UniProtKB/TrEMBL annotation:
The keyword Oxidoreductase applies. Belongs to the short-chain dehydrogenases/reductases (SDR) family. InterPro entries: NAD(P)-bd_dom_sf, Sc_DH/Rdtase_CS, SDR_fam. GO terms for molecular function: oxidoreductase activity. Keywords: Oxidoreductase. Residues 194-216 are annotated as: Disordered. Signal peptide: none annotated. SUPFAM superfamilies: NAD(P)-binding Rossmann-fold domains. It holds the Pfam family adh_short. This is YciK family oxidoreductase. It comes from OM182 bacterium MED-G28. PROSITE patterns: ADH_SHORT.
Length: 256
């Protein structure tokens, strides 16, 4: 796994919004970024879980976190606009948007896939990423060096039987990433990439592979060097790339 040594407080002065900050990989991102000095906006569905993460960050990195409960399944364009306005009032700029929240949907062949769960999975995994990036682009444009990291999966790069809406949602995320990256390439300093975390020890992984020994998968904290690198100045030339955390090596993504 990639290792990245950086200086204490290297995210100081930056504000980073993490979706799905109440659990798993997003929770670890939020805690890690705050520990390096960033202000973190914790977005998740479950207010109680967000409050628990907030309390933990408050002890280790006081004054660094705010919570923003949003249910992507029911949020409206107006809610996203209000979030953008509220962030603009609290912070001069947004330096990072980690679009990490997701649901697994059903594990089922397409023929029997429950339509309601199909729509919910596309709503939570894709439509929210569109709405949130659209609403927050003005906030990100205030930063001299912002990053958007979309979260993909190996089934978003090669389809796999029985992964249904989840796989399709991750293919769509790759398309959204590529489209936005090309739009922003020459008009802005925002850098946009997608990240496949690879199998990681979280509750989503447990639901997807109930028979697996969880200890065979890395903990979220083992992925953090890649996230930190992608938030660093060094990663500035990396744009529009579909990145795999497990095999991450900057030279493979930096322009030759
Ligand atoms: P978890 O299930 O641990 O966490 C998912 C997060 O998404 C939670 O914070 C949850 O919030 C949030 N979320 C779910 N539904 C909604 C909603 N309707 N509105 C707002 N937030 C919501 O997942 P992981 O940490 O494992 O996964 C994170 C990302 O990584 C996902 O995009 C996943 O697809 C991807 N990924 C994960 C892999 C793995 O092995 N873990 C492998 C490949 C990709 P709450 O807790 O409040 O419900």
């Amino acid at each position: 796994m990639f290792q990245y040594e950086t200086v204490e407080n290297f995210l100081s002065g930056k504000t980073i919004l993490v979706t799905g900050a109440s659990d798993g990989i997003g929770k670890c991102c939020a805690e890690t970024f705050a520990s390096y000095g960033a202000n973190v906006v914790l977005l998740g569905k479950n207010q109680k879980k967000l409050e628990a993460i907030y309390d933990k960050i408050e002890i280790l990195s006081p004054g660094k976190a705010i919570i923003q409960p949003v249910d992507f399944n029911i949020a409206t364009e107006g809610d996203y606009q209000n979030l953008s306005n509220s962030l603009a009032e609290q912070f001069q700029k947004l330096d990072g948007l980690i679009l990490n929240a997701g649901i697994l949907g059903a594990r089922s062949p397409i023929e029997f896939y429950p339509s309601d769960l199909w729509h919910e999975t596309i709503q939570v995994n894709v439509n929210s990423a569109f709405s949130l990036s659209k609403a927050l682009l003005p906030n990100l444009k205030q930063s001299p060096d912002a990053r958007i990291i979309f979260t993909s999966s190996s089934v978003g790069r090669e389809g796999r039987a029985h992964w249904g809406a989840y796989a399709v949602s991750k293919f769509a995320i790759e398309g959204l990433m590529q489209t936005l990256a090309e739009e922003l390439e020459k008009t802005s300093t925002i850098r946009v990439n997608s990240l496949n975390p690879g199998g990681t020890r979280t509750s989503m992984r447990k639901s997807a592979f109930p028979a697996e020994d969880p200890k065979t998968q890395p903990l979220p904290k083992e992925l953090m060097p890649v996230y930190l690198y992608l938030l660093s100045e060094e990663s500035k030339p990396i744009h529009g790339k579909a990145i795999d955390v497990r095999e991450f090596e900057p030279a493979n993504y930096l322009p030759k």
